[in-house]
Every structure is written in C-alpha cells, then in structure tokens.
Amino acid sequence: MSEIYTLHVNGEDHEVRDSWIGENLLYVLRERLGLKAAKGACEQGECGSCSVQLGGRLVCSCLVMAAAAVDEPIVTVEGLAGDDVPTDVQTAFVETGAVQCGFCTPGLILAAHHLLDDTPEPSESEIREALSGNVCRCTGYGRIIEAVQRVSVARSDRSSNGGDA
Amino acid sequence: MPVVFPSSLAEAVAAAGERPDAMVLAGGTDLMVEINERRRSVPWDDGAVIAVGQVPELTSWTLDPSAATLTIGAAVRWADIEREPLCSTVPALAQAARTVGSPQIRDAGTVGGNLATCSPAGDGLPVLAAYDAIVHLVSANGRRSLPVHDFMVGVKQTALAPGELIESVSIPLLDGWQGYSKVGVRNAMVIATASACIATDLPSGSIRIALGSVGPTVIRCADAEALASSGVDWSGRSIDADVADRAGALAASASRPITDHRSTADYRRHAVSVMVRRLLIRAFPGAAS
Questions:
Q1: CB-based contact A64 B101, cutoff 8 Å
Q2: Is the CB of B35 less than 8 angstroms away from the CB of A59?
C-alpha cells in the first residue's frame, strides 16, 4: 500500500500516500488533503454536494477515482477566490440569501461559475437545467436562481462599462 | 501503479490483454457507485484499473459523409453528444444525452460506459437500437463488430469478452424525424421508468421503434413498426390518430416490463403506448406542422 500519486488541486501539487485505490476524489480531498469544502451526502452522484471542476468539467467528485485524476487540474471552492476575497458568485449568494444550512452551497457555487463561464447570460430555464444536479433542501432554489441572475447582470454591466465598474 | 493510463488505443488494448480481469474505467459514473457502496472490490496491484477516459482514439468521433455514417468513440461524453455539432447530426441521441443524470453526470459519463453497463434503463441504448448502430470491439486478438442488439445480452450483460474493449459505435445516419421520450419522477437526475425512441427514414420508408426500461434489454417493436410504416402518409407526413393509437398498443404489448421499486408493469406498459403514440404524431404531424 505504498503507492504515492500526485493530484493538482487549486494550482498546487498534493501528494497522496497510503491510500486505497478505490478511494473517490471526494474522500481524498476531505480526509487526506484537508480540503473540506466539497461535501459528501449520497456518494452516488445524485446530490451534487461534492461537485468540483476536473479538467474544466463539472463533475461529482464522489464518482471520480482519485488515483485516476492525476492528469487533470482540480478546482474546489477553496481555489476559487484569492486572498480571502469572495468571488462575485459567492457575494451574490450571500446578498440574496441563497444560503441557508450551507451544505449544498460549495457545489452550487461551482455549478454557477461553470454555467456563467460557458453561458454569460443564461435564461431562467438554462439556470435551472445547469443547477439540476445540485440538490438543496432548504431554499426552494428561488434565491439561488436570483443570485445567478444577479451575477449575470453585473458582469454584463461591467463589460459594457469597459470593465472598470 | 494500479491504475494504467494508456496514451493510445494500442496501449489500452495491450493493457487489457495482459490483464483481462482489469477494471475498465471511463467516466466512472457507474463503476464508482459500485466501489463506493463496496459492491465491487478493487485489487491493489499493477494494471488492476485501465483508465480509458483520455485515450485519443476513444474520445473522438468521425463523420463519413459518403457512407452517411457517424462513428463515436467509446469515451465520448454525453456532454459532447448533447451539444453541436453532434446534436443536429443525431438528434434523438442528443435528446437522450440531455436526460442522462445531471450536468455533472453528463460531463463524466460516456457512450461506451452506457453500452458496457448495459442497464435496462440506459438512456442511450434505445436510440442506438433504433439507429441499428454497430458496436466495434477490439482486443489483442483483433477486432469484431456486432449490431447493438446482439451486443446487449441481458440485464447488465454484454457480449464483451475478457480483455476486450469497446472501441466505438457507428451510426448509419437517417433522413427523417427522430426523437426520444422518457418517463421518470422528475426531469433531472432520474433513471427512466420507461423510455422510447422513434427514428424515421424517408428514403427507405422505415420507422424504427425501440423501448427502454421495459425489458431486460432494449426491445424493438417489429409489429408496431410494420403497422406504422405502412399506415402513415409519407408524402403528406401525416398519421391517422387511429394508426398512432394502434401502433402504441402494439408497442405496449411488445414490452415486457416488471414491477419494481420504480414503477409497476401496468404503468410502464401504459407509458409505452402513450410515448409511442405521441412520438409518431410528432414525427408525422401532417398539416399541423
């Protein structure tokens, strides 16, 4: 059991030692690397709480074999914001009250960033579809959708103002 | 390292030849659930897992316009199939792709994984069956190709031999309306209670009807297909409501559903008749379109 492999998480290399090969990426992130943002609930890809970006794709980290994720960059919520300044999506979630218990929030923040990077001005149905893999049992989703819409509007205002707003 | 990362198809085939019992890992969306739930153990020795998700030959697709054939590599993901240009090349498969799990699942799961798992509820499978798709297999002993219907042997059972990999699936492109329909408890993140695909081909005057989640593997409905293709008005692209009803009923009687935790056999049979009738009316809307 002495195999060592390296994961590229949030721009840094992390060595993983003494792990079992079947360990999923969620477990390795949380229990071996101490990155606790991604949450574990269903461990079968149903809830989206464990969403991370892997090679630019949004995936459930519970369904990624960690030892097979060595070639691609991994981004968790911890790697989104720099110097403790929240991202625009994180700020919008706080301002709209899109967070209640907070368990689903890291996955939703990543899903929202993923959507807005790909589709800067999504319709409400596009937002609902893009977030359909992230289950929230508190908010009823209304404020989450509002948060995404708020970021979309703010980004488009900023770009039409020459980016200095 | 227990996980092998072949950089070409030849390396993947060699790895599978050396370890015919190795686990083949593509998107992981089925395999990791089994591992997480400890329904499958993973041996800790060299070559126990072959990660095929980055093999260039498997992650690409090719369109051959002269043969009117689309060949999709086994590790092409659903997220790629639901988007252009594949979306308008194989619309029914793209519709099915969009119903697979969630965006997270579609960004990981692959068409080859759907085939290899061969769940009765695999969303891509009824569409591939309606297309008369061909599955291409490769091993150290060479290549062979099977109609998708022969590849699917039973519930989670395929014709794959030990040491054999799915290379690709090729789809003869059709000229006509095609669509996929799925019944489940919600729109997203749902395993099909029942599903159906209809694919039409105007030049040959054929209508293919395939059902998912209502039998051990996909069911093609020969009687319903014959009734529909002889009963529609091909030039006016219309279908009598009565013909659509009867085709739906024939499809329902061809289905072999079971009662389980997701639904009852009766409901599934009913869902099949409704889906097939509606798909036929969408395919042949007549003056309404």
A1: no
A2: no
Burial of B244 (0-12, 13-18, 19+ CB in 10 A): buried
CB contacts of A45 in chain B (<8 Å) are: 29, 32-33, 101-102, 104-105
What's the whole-model pTM score?
0.96
Q: Which two tokens stand for residue B271?
A: 């869902």
A133 touches chain B (CB under 8 A): yes
- Put simply, the chain A residues between 65 and 124 with a CB less than 8 A from any chain B CB are 65, 67-68, 70-71, 111, 114
Q: Give Rg (Cα) of chain A.
A: 16
Q: What Cα–Cα distance (Å) separates residue B278 from each residue in A67, A157, B53, B86, B176? A: 46, 44, 37, 24, 16
- Which positions 7-26 of A are in contact with B (Cβ < 8 Å)? 20-22, 24
The ipTM is 0.94
CB-based contacts of A113, cutoff 8 Å, min separation 6:
A80, A87, A89
The pLDDT tens digits of the residues spanning A6-30 come to 999 999 999 999 888 899 999 999 9
pLDDT tens sequence across B134-143: 999 999 999 9
Tokens of A79: 């790697």
Q: Which residue has the tokens 């908010």?
A: A139
In chain B, which residue's Cα lies nearest the Cα of A48?
B104
CB-CB: which of B54, B103, B189 is closest to A58? B103
3-state secondary structure B160-205: CCCCCEEEEEEEECCCCCEEEEEECCCCCCCCCCEEEEEEEECCCC
pLDDT at res. A165: 43
Query: For residue B42, what pLDDT is reported?
Result: 84
Q: Which residue is listed with tokens 């219309």?
A: B238
> Are the beta carbons of A21 and B37 separated by less than 8 Å?
no
Residues 6+ apart with CB under 8 A from A125: none
**A chain contacts of residue B27, beta-carbon cutoff 8 Å:** 63
Q: Which chain B residue has the Cα nearest residue A26?
A: B36
Residue carrying the six token digits 């056999």: B265
pLDDT per position as a tens digit, A141-161: 999 999 999 999 999 998 887
Give the distance, in angstroms, between the CA of residue A10 and the centroid of all CA atoms in the same chain. 12
